[in-house]
Each structure stands twice: as C-alpha cells, then as structure tokens.
Design brief:
Elements lengths: L26 E3 L8 E6 L14 H8 L6 E2 L4 E2 L5 E6 L7 H17 L5 E6 L5 H12 L2 E6 L18 H7 L8 E6 L6 H10 L2 E4 H7 L1 H13 L4 E7 L21 H12 L4 E7 L10 H16 L4
Parallel strand pairs: 1-5, 2-5, 2-6, 6-11, 7-8, 7-10, 8-9, 10-11
Antiparallel strand pairs: 3-4
Helix pairs in contact: 1-9, 2-3, 3-4, 7-8, 8-9
C-alpha cells in the first residue's frame, strides 16, 4: 500500500490546530437514535422570491462559513466544543411547483420535530417564504407560537397578485390561524419599504411593530427584552425569524432587497443574544441571503454569528 508524507487522498489540505475546535466540527449528520442540542435543517427555496434571488444556495454557504469560527467564547470564558449539532440536511424542493415545495418544506420540518432528538432548532433559508411552512410545522407540534421577526418589510403582501411569495409568509400564517396577530412582533421595519395597505393590515391584526426609528430611540435590546417578556406570558414557545435585509446594506450586501438605514451587525447580534437567553425561545430561521450577490461572504458570515449567538448564549444563562 502506498504511503504519502503530505497527501491525504479524498480530504482537503486544511491546517489543524490541536487546541482549537471549529464550529463545523461539532456538526454530525442525523441518524436514528442520535440526540443533540441543536437541530439544523436547510430549506433551500427561493423560486418564489419577488426579487431575482439565489437564496437557495445560502444553506450550504452558511454551513461552510462555520468552519471559520471557534467554539470558544471569550465573552463568556467558555468553550462550547461539547455541543452536538445534528444536521438533517437540505429539503429536496420541487423544480417548478412552488406550492409543492412549500408542502415539502412543511413535511421536512415536521418530520425533523417528530424525531424528538433536539432541544432547539435552526432553519436555514432560502427566501422568507420558507417561514410559512416552518412556523406552521412548529405551531402544530408545540402549540401557541410567538414570533419575533427581524425585517425591513412586513411580509404581508396580498396573495392575488402573485400567490405565495417571499413577501407573503406572515399574511399566510395569520390568515391560516397559525399565528395570532398579537403574538407577532416585527422589529426593524424600514421607511419607504412597505405599502400603506400592509402597514394598516399589521396594525389592524394587532401586530407589535417597531420601526428603525423606534429602534434608534428605545434601543433594540430593551425592545427585545420587553417583547420576550410579554410573549412568554401568553405563548407556549417563541420562534425567531431573521430576515437579513433588516441589516444595513453596508453590513449585509448579500441580500436581494438591500437598503440603507438598517440595523448594524452589532445591533442584530446583541438582540439575538438577548432573545436567545429565554427558555421559551426554541427555534430560529435565517433567510434572504443570496451568496451570488454577497461580497467576501460578509452576509453569510454574519449569519453564522447569528447562529452561534442563538446556540451558545442559552447555554451560559
């Protein structure tokens, strides 16, 4: 048998520091009987996007970015190298039928939950349309759901003009009876980014809406703390939905609907940390990243940090 000094057939030539564990090294492919703390699933659907988007490529890009970061948190002086992340893979979407794709996403999330193998879950989109089947699956599995949505847009467009798109998930959830308006919080809604009809719709539905100006005045961490406290009194669990276009285009250039005047990356991460510390926060999706539009993976790398703040903060509080 041939022996090589420096060649590793079938393996990438990657430097390994014996004292350093990367986040991706904690990920294990799901198999029957395995238990983990985090369930990870890819929902690679973006054909329903109003803007031209290759967000379906985001799950594999975000996973790849996890290899750039350590499991050690200097802020907490704690190494999370013992955390097990179970990867359920990516849902196989339909090449042309959007409604069939939404059904497949719903079934995939439901089947993941039925394994009872994890405590908390992360869904990687895809465009924001994936939140409809995902949140529906969680609601049907765990009961009344509270949702905190980080977003520049209300995402309650009408269904007549284009059917279910990435602009309709929260109308679909509210009108389908899966989420009550009073249990939905929208943070980061940006000026000149929504129609008056949809502004009026969410207010009439009882949605708690915080614009960028509200964030500027009150601070995003106090807002999240207030709403987590309120929701936790009335729902069974809380789901975080992070549309990356809530972040200013300077920090997240890889979003199809970029714009100025959004959150900074630090505001987003601080608010995720605040939310994730509550015991009722069980799930999060990250959506609206188009790797083909990104610069040096800035948006995907920020999303990787959103994941880490969600996964790790809860372990030390």
């Amino acid at each position: 048998m041939a022996k090589f000094s420096y060649l590793q057939p079938g393996q990438a030539a990657v430097f390994k520091d014996r004292h350093l564990t990367k986040v991706n090294e904690c990920i294990t492919s799901f198999s029957e009987g395995l238990k983990g703390e985090i369930g990870l699933i890819g929902l690679p659907s973006s054909k329903s996007s109003i803007s031209l988007s290759q967000a379906a490529e985001a799950p594999k890009k975000i996973r790849a970015c996890l290899s750039s970061y350590s499991t050690f948190s200097g802020e907490n002086n704690h190494d999370f190298n013992d955390m097990k992340i179970l990867d359920f893979g990516d849902c196989l979407t339909h090449p042309t039928d959007i409604e069939e794709t939404l059904q497949r996403l719903y079934v995939s999330v439901s089947e993941m939950l039925k394994t009872n193998s994890c405590e908390r879950f992360i869904m990687l989109g895809g465009d924001h349309g994936v939140s409809f089947p995902s949140i529906r699956a969680f609601q049907e599995s765990f009961g009344r759901v509270g949702v905190i949505q980080w977003d520049a847009h209300h995402d309650v467009r009408n269904l007549t003009d284009g059917g279910r798109t990435n602009g309709t998930p929260f109308r679909s959830l509210i009108e389908g009876g899966f989420v009550k308006g009073e249990d939905l919080v929208q943070i980061g809604i940006r000026d000149f980014s929504n129609a008056k009809k949809y502004h009026d719709y969410v207010l009439k539905a009882g949605v708690s809406v915080y614009t960028i100006n509200d964030v500027e005045k009150a601070g995003i961490v106090p807002i999240v703390k207030k709403e987590i406290s309120r929701l936790s009194q009335q729902v069974d669990f809380i789901y975080l939905s992070v549309d990356m276009d809530v972040v200013d285009q300077a920090f997240a250039p890889g979003c199809p609907a970029i714009g100025p005047g959004g959150l900074t990356s630090r505001e987003l991460l601080a608010s995720i940390t605040e939310a994730s510390g509550h015991e009722k926060v069980k799930a999060m999706d990250i959506v609206e990243i188009d790797p083909s539009k990104d610069f040096r993976d800035m948006t995907s790398r920020l999303s990787a940090h959103v994941m880490m703040n969600f996964m790790y903060h809860n372990r030390v509080n």
